[in-house]
Amino acid sequence: MGVITISGFIVELLFDLAGEIIGHFIPERALETKFQKNINRLKEETWFGELEKDYRYEYIIYQNSRVKRFLSSEKNIKMITSMDEERDDFINLIKEEH
User: How far, in Å, CA of 6 to CA of 80, rounded?
Assistant: First the structure.
């Protein structure tokens, strides 16, 4: 069981490293890759699914550069998925940008 966890971690680390290398040469592509990875992670959250269903907020999530930069940060994703206050601040950001 531990081997699977370690190998999964190593694979994820290698993908992150590859993303960083790509990001060094093609910065826009790295941002998009991190963004999409984090969006896929957020889609598992009920509150995000409801936010995304609203066409006004869906547009902001996918098109607003400030929101996309925020969602491209792993640190920000960890905060909004683990802390209610941070999640509420993020939802307010989406509404303000709308």
Answer: 26
pLDDT tens digit string along 18-65?
A: 766 666 666 555 556 788 999 999 999 999 999 989 988 999 998 898
Q: What predicted TM-score, i.e. pTM, was given to this entire model? A: 0.64
Q: What is the DSSP letter of 72?
A: T
Q: Which of 44, 33, 48, 31 is nearest to 86 (CA)?
A: 48
3-state secondary structure 3-64: HHHHHHHHHHHHHHHHHHHHHHHCHHHHHHHHHHHHHHHHCCCHHHHHHHHCHHHHHHHHHC
Q: Using CA atoms, how far apart are residues 85 and 11, in angstroms rounded to an integer?
A: 32
How do the domains of the chain map onto residue ranges? 27-97
Q: Which residues contact 23 (CB under 8 A, 6 or more apart)?
A: 29, 30, 31, 33
